[in-house]
## 1
Amino acid sequence: MRLFYKTHCACAWCTTGESFVLAVDVGTTSIRCHVYDKEAQIRGSCTDKVVPLYPEVGHVEMDPGEIWRGFITVVKGAVQDAGVQMRQIEALGISTQRATFTTWDRKTGVPFHNFISWQDQRAADLVKSWNRSCTMKVMGNHNLLYFLTRQKRLLAASLIVFSTQHVTFRLAWALRHYTQVRQAVAEGKCCFGTIDTWLLFKLTKGQVHATDYSNASATGIFDSYQVGFLCSLVSLPLSIFPKVENTGHDFGSTDPSIFGVPIPIMSVMADQQAAMFGECCFDVGDVKITMGTGTFMNINTESKPHTSVAGLYPVVGWKIGSEVVYLAEGNAADTGTAIKWAQELELFSDVKDTSAMAYSVSDSDGVCFVPSFSGLQAPLNDPKACASLMGLKPSTTKSHLVRAILESVAFRNNQLYETMLRETRIPITKIRVDGGVSSNDFVMQLTADLFGRKVTRPQHLEMSCLGAAFVAGLGIGYWRTREELKKLQSTDKMFLPRGANKEGACSRSREYIPVLQSWERALRRSMNWYKP
């Protein structure tokens, strides 16, 4: 399904010689493309659906052919919607969901299997056994080495907790179950890559097998401290892995046969890091919360990777020139998933109605919802947790259920925020939100109340696209400086916690403490539900 957005008259533009930057974001549920002008305004857009595949319980896949078709469709559609010509596109930036991967034949470019999604749970038992294994206990002895050497990467090794969202064990699963992958590895003709790598390979007709630091750092097989792939972790030769390039890098141009003209590919970014850049969170202590299919909370830790006890993950935000910026990240996997599930159950017809439904009742009538269709991530890290509704009564209405679901989104935000404050001990400078779920005023106001901090929502919620465009534009001089980018930011609404001072801060809301306590009790009961 292809959708176009704002259409403008093309005549005046084509005669002015204007140029534009194009950005594509390949997400979990959609592929979007925007054409940006110098003011970072969207001149044309197109979107196409991503249809996930569920071949078995716990397996989540995507068809590589459909991803490629969707990518081409949205690029052509957005340029058409903008009323401009392909030759007016100066640069292309690409943002993609992370840790979704496939393997393919180096000579033919044909994938050996579907993309295995970051949401996939097929390696849950492997992850659990590894985290309990002797190997992990040996890695735990790195704590002593850290005490003696004070090298943070050794502390990270002692604290590391793998999850199914990391590529590591899903790749190990693929090697174990797909004979043709093992054979291709043995013959030296296997390529591994996340979506960005595969798209680069396709766009350049096999000339480029590369990724960037932001995508590589989110795989779980990349050492963010030593900035290199840990080939020994999955017993694979370095040759199957892509070359890791700067985020803002000239990745070559698209083959002219694809869009009619070659378009320079000037940035490749992981979606959450791209959203961070799009929100202009360039300074230490800047926080970005993206609420889409899942929630991803990132804090800028500047040049230092953060070492976590509770499952926050150190990722490279971006590497531009010699500058490497690190982020600490926590996530909740089922934010938009829970809301879509509720819609499919016909608790509401239009997602825009949910905020009003939640405000129409004074509380959830004691109902608690645990949004863990894909297990629980930081700080609890339980892949065997189940989603659940507890506290149902004959008096429970649809509005109570909707309020409980929206409250659970804000409660998970609060869990991640508290973990981030406790672990990083970095003073928070600003909090910006984006993603489709951030358009819900009830969720955003409750989040601000629980944080006791001002939360700012931009006018355009698709920050991953904008971030990829910003980096690509900086690379060709379309925009000159980051200060210039900050001036292009637009704000839709600021959510102030009730009782906030002029700076938008106050003591954190105590009104919700009993509700939070009930929800945390429901959370504990949902844990370790699915036994091995």
## 2
Amino acid sequence: MNKNNLFQCEISNCANTLFSPQDFLTQLVWNLLEEGTTSFKDNEWGQAVKDFSEGLNIVYYAASEEIDIPKALLESLYVNRATAYHSMGQCQLGVQDCDRALEVCKESRSALYRKALCLKELGQYKEAYNCTTDCLLITRLVKSKTSWSCLLQENKNSHVSSAVCNPLSATHDFMPACSLCFPREGQGIYTFVHKPDLVHTCKRDILLCRKKAGYLSEWTRVRPIPTWTSFSGPFVLCRGKKLLKSGDLGLCKFGEKCTFAFNQLEIDVWTEERKGTLDRSVLFDPTAVKLDPVYTVTRLLQEHKGMFLFLCQECYDSKPTIISRRCRDDKAICSNLHAPHAFDDNKCLAYMMMNTTVNYRKIRQLHILCHLDLCRQAVRYGCLREDSCHFAHSVIELKTWRMQRDTGITVEEIVKESIKYYEKQEQNSPNFSPGAFGGGPNKPLGGGKGAKSLNLKMKFACAGCWLNGLISEPDKALKYCTARARHAWTKERRVLLVKSPGRNKWVQVRPLPHAKNYPLQYDLCTQILEKRKCTYTGNCTFAHSQEEKELWTYMKNNDLRDMQQIYDMWLSLANQNRQSDGTALTQSNPLAEEKCIVMPTDYADPMSSFHCRLCGRHSNSERQWQQHISSEKHKDRVFSCEGEDESLTWSYRFPGPRFEICPKLDSECPEGASCDFAHSPEELQEWLERRDFLRRKLAKAREDMLIMPDELDFGKYNFLLQD
């Protein structure tokens, strides 16, 4: 029995039911469309083609029997089968199906887009461009530019640039100004006067903003986004209530350099600028978009305090992550000692961010399916789709994709320009990096031709010996100090000593005081100035010597917030100066503390180290890695929201053990904030969302081997993970 007879039998059978032949065939086509879609999601492309083809056969039969099937179903069958053909590499068949879909609906955006994909793979770039242009004319949506602006990116003979989108255009008005047409006539932040009729040549270096709706109709100045702080949380208003009411800058001790926003408009603009979705230069002059690749690479390096480099993708994607570059001895392989891979075949672009810790972000290849937006799952608890996801997994990846789209720069050119930038920085300014020091560990900090030297010598010594008036450095193995007492050489038992030319005496420098927003400058402790001993019971945040003040300022200005970074630099310099004598310091103890890489090089010595993306730490052995991921600090980091999307700022208390509404809610709850129950339906709903969020984070951490498989103790988070 052929298919037509089979359909006739089934239709005759359904005549005795409540379904009409049209409803029956329509439902049958719909089911096959759903089955094909499911097969496609499971990467079973051949089966998907069969399902879509069977659905089309039913449509053909229905047409022969003059039974109408919705055209939307027919269009979807053609487009979906074209998508499956494209995934199988049969792009010519995909083009044919797209043409059939366009015959059904000549304004089918999906068909035009899929046809463009297939034509691009066939090398027919002009035809692909025409398809995407037609798609733009139909959709009239700004977001459609994502598809066509990426389309010809891989064609080196073509270049497509797209305008930068303003996500605030629907709610905010913007206007460029200068100090002449928007002068200040007082000391307050609201004493500026707009003079739109002034005849002058405007420098267009001040951004004005106002809401399109609401009571605020006057133009308000929006300061440049703070770039001198590594703060990654949501922007908030300046806490000085008097400042907000009066607008008097004198009430804010930081003045114009305050990293808090002076108004809600600054919060709106700064938030979008940090995401990379708004470009201030385009708001100043939309016709003068800068597409210079060197300019854009340099701007990214300055904004995110890091460097582009190539890593081995096989090692980076392993679980746990291994950071390996091109091997110094054999440039054809990566530096993974246990499982070296062919480097050129597996290299991927990455960005190394150097803040309080050193962290890496892989930047996947930009292709036609990429969506220039952040993946919501990636910024929350980690995207389970990983490389198959078409959304950006980090802000730096999103900005790099935008740069590639707007300039056509290749990944090789990005790394090349990054290296040039840091070579120039080493020549013109002091930098705490192995190549930036001119001398050994006991020589002045700074170096480089033309660099402004800090003019301090430094060394690390044993803290136990220092308390007894002795200065002893570590032995070659970095296990013990060189004194007779043989104190253990650990992070807690060493101190940083510096010496200035004016004083022939070593002075201890304490770690940089932790602060959410670092001060503009450090001051000397008044008790020290009076030549007395500081009697402050806690950690005094004032410098106890001129040398400490200078070094703290230097560390703050160079984003060196952790003493571990200074130690790594000192150790690197010590090795450089002792290698000629064959007495280099070596880390032979497998349980020794972890060290982070401070600056990349083009090549690396053969090594194997595990990298924790949460803490930015390296472990040189499996045992050291297990110790790290079992530590309380690491487990707290797994559940923290540090550096996550700003929408994760919770509004209510930390969840209690009872996920129920408080029974005493009708009256005043005597336990207050310590109550184990939720105090409102909204708080209970947030508790449930927070529990689900933490469970997802834990599942992702286990998958990435950032948590031991048998680990069940998570401290205060234990009850959240129980059923």
## 3
Amino acid sequence: MGMPVSWGTEIPGLELWREETSSERHLQVIYPQHSKLTDKEKTNICYLSFPDSNSGCLGDTQFCFRFRQSSGRRVSLHCLLDQFDKDLPVYLKKDPAYFYGYVYFRQVRDKTLKRGYFQKSLVLISKLPYIHFFHTVLKQIAPEYFEKSEPYLEAACNDVDRWPAPVPGKTLHLPIMGVVMKVRIPTCHDKPGTTQIVQLTQQADTHISVILPTVHEVDLFRCFCPVFLHSQMLWELVLLGEPLVVMAPSPSESSETVLALVNCISPLKYFSDFRPYFTIHDSEFKEYTTRTQAPPSVILGVTNPFFAKTLQHWPHIIRIGDLKPAGEIPKQVKVKKLKNLKTLDSKPGVYTSYKPYLNRDEEIIKQLQKGVQQKRPSEAQSVILRRYFLELTQSFIIPLERYVASLMPLQKSISPWKSPPQLRQFLPEEFMKTLEKTGPQLTSRIKGDWIGLYRHFLKSPNFDGWFKTRRKEMTQKLEALHLEALCEEDLLLWTQKHTEVETVDLVLKLKNKLLQADREHLPVKPDTMEKLRTHIDAIILALPEDLQGILLKTGMT
């Protein structure tokens, strides 16, 4: 019995027992039972699975956290996820160094307990950043689990164990305790900004109970609502990988806001670390709060008042109040000087001395304000805000994409008998010169110091991560084109003009090429691979029998 490895998921049930003088948290039960968590991971999970005592979360609360995987952990458990990773958008690919924790926490008054409260969390641990999906799963099973305990959890895990693999682009039907969820995981081939709507068909879907329009997106407008006047400045801070702290009243508000910030530069991936909910007990607490060096490129979501003092040297702090339900609009916060932030009780605001590179886009503010006045649903406001962020990010990234594409060697320079050519070097000043004619002004109405923004971005972790990803993709494309060039050659004729030693060397190199194509998921046409195998077989059969036997045993043919 257990969760399917293909979903990279484990469900620990955590119960909190507190004596009057203690704040100990205990791991009560783990499913599947063969799951291996290190002591450090267990400690992190235990502390991250409960709100700080000052949060005062009564009733049921859902939130998300992210924690670092212990070094030395075996990664083979999640190797099945790798085959799906290649078809995912870059921002949904799993990060091998981190786990996500999805929490359903309940706190209710209970006079029979010493502390006066029943407190318990059900936590789902996964490598996958499918926030909306896993919160929906927990919403289906946690309330019943708190009433019926372990047998119910075991039954839920048995349901999940029968789920199909999370293949991007496929519509999946996922049963969970009498409910069937219908979802579609996005692919890297989807047009950015579009959601492939999962349709409900009249006859076949009579048993469908829940249709999820998204697996990963949060309610963007609800999270940005208190700060939407400054949303463009926050987009710049996230794009540049600036150290950023979100101080919130509860873990649900801190985690939603951090995830919304990370999401606002989509389809770019945020390559630095981010912690939707961070506590003083986190194993990276000292690393991230030290004053002996500059604050790291990370986004932290916190609720403990202690952080107002510990992190007051950080350059950018967002202090938010309670997020309002859909339809209610909180007062817009102001940008304030950092020196005015004394405690977590300070008024909501964006505390920073950062001067944005771009002029504020008044059009989007008017559009959102009009939506507020007309009581436009939060979902519709989120669509407007998400499209605005997408267009802003695309306007910024298209000139970079265009320049990087020019670094690719011409296809005619690829020779089957030489190693694939190298990409040209990325030269910042050469790129800057391209902006005069093909810069963001072609697609964006926003004015400002775009050049300054690009110069800052080129020094950021997000540029480093983006360029490494693009360089890897382009290098793989060159390898694939080289393979195709080899396939077009008459290799058998070549071997007739060369020695047996050279022929054996060619066969071994071709086999290595096939292995590399398979291992690195090179973008090679299926018939190219088949042609190459046919070439290899023909060459081997033309060799003496003793060499045939040896070569047939080495690798694949």
## 4
Amino acid sequence: MGLSSLTVSNNRKHIVVVFISLVFILKIALISCANQESQIYTVHLGKRQHDDPKLVTDSHHDILGSLLGSKEASRESMIYSYRHGFSGFSAKLTSSQARELSENPHVVHVTRSKNMKLTTTRVSDYLGLTSTAPTGLVHDTDMGSDAIIGIVDSGIWPGSKSFNDNGLGPIPARWKGQCVSGEGFNASMCNRKLIGATYYAKGLARKYKGAFKAAEKDEAMSPLDKVGHGTHCASTAAGSFVQNANYLGLGQGTARGSAPRARVAAYKVCWNNEECFTPDILKAMDHAMRDGVDVLSLSLGSEIPLDFEVDRSDFAIAAFHAVMKGITVVCAGGNDGPETQTISNVAPWIITVGATTMDREFFTPITLGNNVTVLGQEGLYIGEEVGFTDLIYFDDLTKADFEAGKAKGKILFTFLTDRSTDQIAEFAKSKGVVGIIIATKPIDLIEPGTAGIASARVDYEIGMDILLYLQTTKFPKAKISPTKTFVGRPSATKVARFSSRGPNSISPAILKPDIAAPGVGILAAVPTGVGYEFMSGTSMATPVVTGIVALLKQKRPDWSPAAIRSALVTTAFQTDPSGEPIAAEGSPRKIADPFDYGGGLVNPGKVADPGLVYDMGHDEYVHYLCSAGYEDISISKLLGKVYTCPSPTPSMLDVNLPSITIPYLSQEITITRTVTNVGPVGSVYKAVIEPPLGINLQVSPKTLEFGPNTKKITFTVKVSTTHRVNTDYHFGSLTWTDNGAHNVRIPLSVRTRVLNFKI
């Protein structure tokens, strides 16, 4: 009996083992089949080897045709040929074909298609970008009338008043782009303001195997923006003057972009609010380089883990080629804050933007029965006042109470930690509640409620005050008034909670973000009946900076993208325009540091006259690539010529950035920087140091004298630590000052590592 039982048991074990083995083999087979299914891959070939775009495309077919067996097969497989700003192509390939192509000596690297995500009436006045001033950046550039801004986003709504071309002269002669007709969009809708509008959907089509049904997704196969994100960003950067713009009476004023007379070229690459595929983005950037844009604005981003710039990032490579052509690339830093190391778009040739609040807020007054009024924040209530009525606490009610109608006609109060505010509001409305007050953590978003009842949001501190009133009052009552706009004091600037933070997770010695700008509650154009809506995100902060860059590019046409970035960083505010220190929302709130806002809050009043710039060009970017450990062959292909990194490998700490970030300091080191005088000849600057806590700094020379024949000066900074244990980052600054006319400030971020975790 026992032996028989053992035998049966063992036989069952054998059967189970065989079954599991078959399942495992079947899974491997399925994975193998999936790997052989063709997908879109992008093949990067670096710098163009021909000036004629046709020859560039022919060379792409030569490479792909040799793999697939014929030029005809190559034409069927290839979806894009990148032939203007750089060389490369996107094609439908199997994984084995992609691996084989990656071994081709002409190929920099091969990457699979990736989906990236989309990350006003007050902003310009808040930053001092006034059009009526007799001097200044806006005045001196005719509000950017000769600048061309490329917006790579979800398209454009041409009917918005923000894109009227009243008073604009002819389109700049250098413009080579076009407007493309499509569903709901006619090329004739373009004008002297909206000078370009195209769309890119081959990457999208591949995902849906050619069966993307635009109408079902509330989309249009054209440059027409059905999402609103691209229109909002374009009008924030370069919207024309529109009087009495508002959202249902809130934020009323004159809407305008940072560069209100700049020209807009819209490149639609994002669909259905979330689908932005890298092959489409690259083709848009390739065309933008051909078309003649001065600045590219991309409110798009990736999530952690980020792609390495040369070996894996399609986007960073395209941006590199744009910068090498003198086109400044401005990108959103992402909305994954306030956690550290969440910043995206971190390549040193990109200007990466964080988001702040500004001095405009929207408060929803809540008056309790004891005549104490508290102010709800962040949510918008546009409706009739709900007069004094009974105030009840959610936790005091049971499901049966709600079903019995005990909440009907009353205002409901609740604390919310893990439920959606819209969900709880919808529930409350379904039970006859006339208003809801929600105590929740701040999120720094300005958005209307969707439930159709009076609603207000407060933080936990105010929530506890309301709860105390509820629990100590026999018949508690409250009323909720419509949201009101408050401008100026007492609203101090802070880095938004959602704004992604440094340090840079790919190269910690490269400070990111570079700069911050208002990105909370930005009122700008949208394709809806109301015409203007509030949006929040680093997506909204990015076009604020883009417009300022366009003005600066027109004012200083000989400045490189790096010089422009330097001017933004070194002139930035560390206090808001009212003089208050800029805070950073988080847990807990703190004074902002370089990982929150880079150099600080953008200061357009000073940016055109920084005095000195930390410039970078071809050699400095190659220095970075070598210091980051990229192989000579990859760098050579990227540059389009043979290049060998020097030995010993240069230090990333010496990349000529307008910042010094030292992630691993254990012993004394010497860092080098070079500044270029863009101010008066004969200027003399002295060093002013604010050292990070426990860090010793010695600058040599301490004085910089720019004579008639001296345009650039190199200085060194010796850095050592007094800490005897590992520390977190401490922050300071180095400022070159010429007795007040110019204060050229760069942030310092230093972390002591007695024991280095990187071996």
